[in-house]
Amino acid sequence: MQLRKDPITQSWVIQADAGDGLEKSEVCPLCPGHEALTPQTIYEYPYGSPNWQVRVIPHLRPIYQIEGDALRRAKGIYDTMRNLGAHEIVVEHPDHHLPLSRQPDEHVAQVIRAYVSRVADLKKDRRFRYVTVFRNQGEPAGQDFEHPHTQITATPFIPRRVGYELRSSQRYYQLKERCLICDILKQELVEQERTVEWDDLFVAFCPFASRIPYETWVLPANHLDAFEEDLASWERQLRFARFLKSVLGRLEAVAPAYHLVLHTAPNVNARFERSGNWQTLADDYHWHFEILPVIPSKSKSYGLKEVYYNSLTPEDAARELRRLVPAGSKP
Questions:
Q1: Cα within 13 Å of Cα(147), Cβ side
Q2: Strand pairing report for 12-15 and 130-137
Q3: Are residues 154 and 125 in contact, defined by beta-carbon separation less than 8 angstroms?
Q4: Contact status, residue 83 vs residue 41, Cβ threshold 8 Å
Q5: Which CATH number characterizes residue 275's domain?
Q6: How many domains does the chain have?
Q7: What pLDDT, on a 0 to 100 scale, did the predictor assign at position 270?
Q8: pTM score, two decimals?
Q9: Beta strands in the chain (DSSP E)
Q10: Phi and psi at residue 318, in whole multiples of 5°?
Q11: Are 233 and 239 contacting, i.e. CB atoms less than 8 angstroms apart?
């Protein structure tokens, strides 16, 4: 594989070789007892136990390769580099049929702890500018395995959408000396038209300019730029696990398939980060999860112009989600 940069949009594109991709197997490699079918364990809980509850391994067919360097090259006007990075799988539970939203609170907290541990560890590698966590649940969302799992990637570049967020947050702070997302959050909590769920620590709401029906953001009520720093304690992990479970349960009642993506601060210690690029990052950026349900019959994207068409207002979506009992909960 090779990474190629679009000189117009500044986005990096993975050029895959023919034949890349996962082959279907009758045996699930992520189930207990099949550890020999996967690469060596990176992280597990409990550590060293054959009866593991959460396990992290390198992806079986990784998009990115952790060995070596980026080898950035120019090809005339174009830029290319190796597919340097990390690509990991968090096996969320030994049970092949138990989704994250229906696992016990303490178990989901251990999954969150695995996220925190891996993001923090990967950020120690100065080759990587950005580390993220994402889940593709359901076949319509492109789920790699049926077994409940999350993926983590580390890359030598900042994804384009995150780059837009970082620059917008930086400009807003330069103008007003306030965090843009904090101000959005304050307005959402005052109006309570698009809020889905909230408590003293976390908030979930449907964005004002939602791209698709039921798009939902989950974020801390108080300001912090880095996910792994905010959720470093067991108490915070447990509270966030309960909150996230509830939000996912509501969404799964209307959209069983979804994408969940972590947006967090980039790795400011990365080798390729320009000096002083993110001087106000700790003050201007606010980490969050974005959840994008997959509802093909209700939404469509005009990809050519990159203008989204959303057939359901975020106000109506949030009102419906508030009324719903989370999937797996007792009414």
A1: 22
A2: unpaired
A3: yes
A4: no
A5: 3.30.428.10
A6: 1
A7: 87
A8: 0.92
A9: 2-5, 12-15, 43-45, 54-58, 73-75, 78-82, 86-91, 130-137, 149-155, 195-198, 202-205, 216-220, 258-263, 288-293, 299-302, 307-310
A10: -65, -40
A11: no
